[in-house]
Amino acid sequence: MDNLQLPAVDPRQVQHRSGEQSFVFPTYSSLPEWEGRARELREHIAVVTGLMPRPDLYPRWASVTPCSQGPGYTVDRLALMGSSGLLCTGNLYRPLGQHDPAPAILNPHGHWDAGRLEHSAQGSVRARCITFARMGILALSYDMVGYNDSLQIADHHFSSRRGALWGLTSLSLQLWNSLTALEYLCSLPEVDVSRIGCTGASGGASQALLLTALDDRISVTAPVNMISAHFQGGCECENTPALRLDTYNVEIAALAAPRPMLMVSATGDWTCNTPQVEFPALQSVYSLYDRTAHLAHVQIDAEHNYNADSRAPVYQWFARWFGIPQEQAVEQPFRRDPDERLRVFPTATLPGNVPDASAFAESWREYALKRQASLLPDTVADMEQLRAISKLRLEHVLGVRLPEPDEHIASSVELIRAEHGYVCNRVSLGRPGREHIQCIEYLPEGESLGTAVLVDAAGIETYSRTTGAPGPLVDALLKAGYATCIPEPFSRSVPAGAPARRDSDWYWSCFNRCLTGEQVQDLLILLTWFGRRGAKPWVIGHGVGAVWALLAAAISGSGLAVCADLTELDLDADDTYLRNVDIPLVRAYDLCSTAASLIAPRPLLLGVQPGWSGQEWVSHAYELQQASSVLRIEGHPLTIGDVLSCKGHT
Fold this sequence. Notes:
The chain is of the alpha/beta class. It has 21 helices and 18 strands. It has helices at residues 11-14, 31-48, 125-134, 161-165, 170-187, 203-214, 249-253, 278-288, 308-322, 339-342, 360-373, 380-398, 460-463, 472-479, 508-511, 515-532, 544-556, 574-580, 591-598, 615-624, 640-644, and strands at 61-70, 73-81, 87-95, 102-108, 138-142, 191-201, 220-224, 261-268, 295-303, 410-419, 422-430, 437-444, 450-455, 482-487, 537-542, 562-565, 604-607, 631-634. The protein has a nine-stranded mixed sheet, sandwiched between helices. It has a nine-stranded mixed sheet with strand order 10-11-12-14-13-15-16-17-18, with helices on both faces. Helix 5 packs across helix 6 (203-214).
């Protein structure tokens, strides 16, 4: 017993993260330590933005139309559409008289009123693209969703909890478009794919950070007025559920290392502390590569901006790394074209082959279903690939991990009552300083055959009588020789005075594990604790608790058997997840079906509603593993007899 190591109150109930708190950069003492963390962060960003595995984002349809020309440059209207039906629109500025393959720079625009067409004292997307073109660089500026020609999205602030189930969020769409724009640039014969950069300010810098993090083809970057330890972005397009679990923008920015990066900040916004805080933090990572010269910083005395003073060092930075004479890297006057000339769809009418605002959401969902269906395994090797992909998806969207082998799990056991035929204990356990999980345990007389972990959203109330005596299922298990352990659901163990969770708040959910993630994490710790004691855990779940049981068992990978009664849930309906299992991307990744499939070849008893679409996945997985004999799928609520019939499986 080592209950003194357990916190009196579960820290997760009282310590919540937010985008307005000041974060401290972790210390990485070696390059292998950092690169391990960097790999994990890249996986995380890819998973929570719907990019695991990365789809083919090369545009299957492109429209390129010349629209303007000035001294040293030309401008094209550009529309690109990938397999998802998502449209990327913008302008491509090309240098005149360029014969050798040229560098290229992506220019996400940020929250200017005119988007990519902005030309004001505070920021001009046109000025920087024209200057890049005159320097001999192709410059592509493209719309954020809901701006200018991004007509598939009527409102930039369209993100919703329902959309997040399918990965349909503004941040994800913009990142997908950034990758499509990158694929297009890399396909052009006049582009030198070894010299591709990215720069943007504010919301455009947020996009630049994520694109640079995920794709090494971005060889040079210059995020402007965004990287901050105390502010992470105030728009939906900079936040998506689970993105910043246990991380923040400065650590995400460090994923650019050791590639050249210029940090431009301002004295009048949230980057005011960059010389003293964020720049030294990033320098600590660049020093691990012995590439501190690849990181530079300039601070401008101004309010939030991407003005001429901020653009000037950016031109010099790209000229330095792209091998362009510095005297060419100077902004010169230019003629401003009317907005209509640069618009891709000046009449605000999309081509007939492009899903419009009324059809796009359904097009996106259909594409997500097709992507998931393509992962249905045909061979054992395919099954192992599915297992690897799905475990990463589950771990990252839920924000959970199995305890490491050397992680101590503290515990205490307190006797509640000893009656004829059983003993009832209160069990508390968790990793010291991290969790305090409470359970009720019923032990049979004599040596037990194993332990059944009973999981339900109502906890002990489902499985015991009002007197505290065992309920029917527990009583039957005890008589069959099984101990039972009933964890108190995380959502029901909130201490008095604890700050309220705000799971429905878009920004809060970006920084904090979803409620289902907390429940699954508790189960992973509990199952690991039993496994270390040689207790042969067996999981039985009902309703929402059955979903938690499936997800935990899929991640655990241990030899436990699973009984899951899901008959009260329509797993093919969005509303089921919004009410009960609100997990980002749960529908796009079909997490319940794949979790049940990952349990193969272990014994699995499922009670499901007739017609559940996931039945094909589960049956197929068990056939591939030659384990169909230990799979039962029933179309009715599981009886005690059904559950007990699985005891031989353990």
